[in-house]
């Protein structure tokens, strides 16, 4: 027996994100699922930093920081600014700040 959607559920379905949008969102959340990347994002919440500053602040190797920054940059979560020979990293936009803030508020609220 097949169940058809209730008439009142059609507006809900028409407002849902598309499958390609949900796939892209899933990829963004995968980026947020790594502790090293979250630490880098948290450091960049404070101010823009170069790779050396991040290695010193987080106790990570240059190779590890560079690898994670590449993933964050490919996901459009961080951006770069060149000053002479130095490259500084910062959060790409306020959406990244909001995602981090909301995630932290949620875990602090739930106590988990």
Report on the architecture of this protein:
There is one protein chain. With 112 residues, the protein is an alpha+beta fold. The protein has a single domain, classed as Arc Repressor Mutant, subunit A, CATH 1.10.10. It has helices at 10-15, 19-31, 35-46, 51-58, 62-74, 94-110; strands spanning 49-50, 78-83, 86-91. Strands 1-3-2 form a three-stranded antiparallel beta sheet. It is elongated, with a radius of gyration of 19 Å. The model has no long low-confidence stretch (mean pLDDT 91).
Blueprint (SSEs and pairs):
Elements (H helix, E strand, L loop, with lengths): L9 H6 L3 H13 L3 H12 L2 E2 H8 L3 H13 L3 E6 L2 E6 L2 H17 L2
Antiparallel strand pairs: 1-3, 2-3
Pfam family, one: HTH_5
Keywords: Cadmium resistance, DNA-binding, Transcription, Transcription regulation
Protein name: Helix-turn-helix transcriptional regulator
Structural class label: alpha+beta
Extended strand count? 3
**Tally the helices: what do you get?**
6
CATH superfamily, called what?
Answer: Winged helix-like DNA-binding domain superfamily/Winged helix DNA-binding domain
Describe what is shown at a glance.
InterPro entries: ArsR-like_HTH, ArsR_HTH, FPG_cat, HTH_ArsR_DNA-bd_dom, Metal_resp_trans_reg, WH-like_DNA-bd_sf, WH_DNA-bd_sf. With 112 residues, the chain is of the alpha+beta class.
């Amino acid at each position: 027996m097949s169940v058809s959607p209730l008439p009142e559920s059609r507006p809900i379905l028409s407002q849902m994100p598309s499958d390609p949008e949900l796939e892209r969102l899933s990829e963004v959340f995968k980026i947020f699922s790594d502790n090293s990347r979250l630490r880098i994002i948290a450091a960049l919440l404070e101010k823009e930093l170069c790779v050396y500053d991040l290695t010193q602040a987080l106790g990570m190797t240059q190779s590890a920081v560079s690898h994670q920054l590449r993933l964050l940059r490919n996901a459009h979560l961080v951006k770069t600014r060149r000053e002479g020979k130095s490259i500084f990293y910062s959060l790409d936009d306020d959406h990244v700040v909001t995602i981090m803030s909301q995630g932290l508020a949620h875990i602090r609220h739930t106590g988990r």
